[in-house]
Amino acid sequence: xxxxxxxxxxxxxxxxxxxxxxxxxxxxxxxxxxxxxxxxxxxxxxxxxxxxxxxxxxxxxxxxxxxxxxxxxxxxxxxxxxxxxxxxxxxxxxxxxxxxxxxxxxxxxxxxxxxxxxxxxxxxxxxxxxxxxxxxxxxxxxxxxxxxxxxxxxxxxxxxxxxxxxxxxxxxxxxxxxxxxxxxxxxxxxxxxxxxxxxxxxxxxxxxxxxxxxxxxxxxxxxxxxxxxxxxxxxxxxxxxxxxxxxxxxxxxxxxxxxxxxxxxxxxxxxxxxxxxxxxxxxxxxxxxxxxxxxxxxxxxxxxxxxxxxxxxxxxxxxxxxxxxxxxxxxxxxxxxxxxxxxxxxxxxxxxxxxxxxxxxxxxxxxxxxxxxxxxxxxxxxxxxxxxxxxxxxxxxxxxxxxxxxxxxxxxxxxxxxxxxxxxxxxxxxxxxxxxxxxxxxxxxxxxxxxxxxxxx
Length: 457
Description:
Blueprint: H1 6-15, H2 24-44, H3 48-58, H4 76-86, H5 104-118, H6 122-142, H7 153-170, H8 174-187, H9 201-221, H10 237-241, H11 248-251, H12 282-295, E1 304-309, H13 311-317, H14 325-329, H15 332-342, H16 352-355, H17 358-364, E2 367-371, H18 373-378, E3 385-390, E4 396-401, H19 414-425, H20 434-442
Parallel strand pairs: 1-2
Antiparallel strand pairs: 1-3, 3-4
């Protein structure tokens, strides 16, 4: 008997799980990430690119799905597109280190739109979220480090997650799920070139991945076929987009059963972001905050600071002179300087007047960045940074961070995510709704339908 394709093996494992198989802990993890996603999406509604996405959504077809910022219902693909894009704008959405994927921003909008379309229950929606994270992360782990040089994993690998999540909601069987993943992978894309301009493209990456994955699942439910070997085939995903793929990581442990003690769900390893910047800056931010406490009032007397981290962090965030908000979010120098000077890197720290602050600019000019070989070798399993300061007496003091706040090893609590949600909703149209939304997320597994879950304007 011929060996099944990687996609078929993954599809078989995903579709074998029933909502009743979820443990109470699985459900709590899923709800935590839904709340975190929702908070990021709410914050996105109050931004300029968010307003553009919402306006685009208003011009699209009507349907049963809600879009944050739009009063009447929209078509499912439109809802996934806009809600996905909104949740990726303020750089506060979750991140999985091993796959370098922001799973929530693509998986949850697709799962939600699918659930609203068919009136699925909260329990099935939560299973879809968990399954979508699983697919996106497994593909992201397998595609290798080389992929990330040109492709944003959230846009490419995330499309598989969106298709898997929507497929679970629609009740696809293993063959249909294989088709959905096959077509999702064939349309997956998302290049990093936008970062050179500080353009808005990254938000479109998330929205389009969510929408494309949803479409792939809808078509599969109708019998629309897709490539069975989309991952490992000679003209497939790995061959076209990677030079160091590890295909075995797609199916590792599946023989032991997803969600089992020996093959726990990938969602449990995902990080939640406390800082409003690219996740690659977070180890340095936390190290700088600790270093700030150590140095105290002597910050101005430090002649040079040095950030040592892994190569990908510099590839994405070595931006010594950011000229706009988005570039600043991807500037290791700017984020480190903010942490050193103010002890925080929040949403308001990227306002235009902050970017031109002479104190920040002076501090940035004293920050050197470099790749540390040992730190680089540990990536992407461990995302580390070391920040050091050369003191007036010639000595050096340094802080090394392996697990910044928000990583599973240094996890945030439910109450901390609630506080983050309230903060992100400030000055948005949803500021008064957060208490109800938190309660609604808490009761998700008991909802008979997801219709009406998102607030209407």
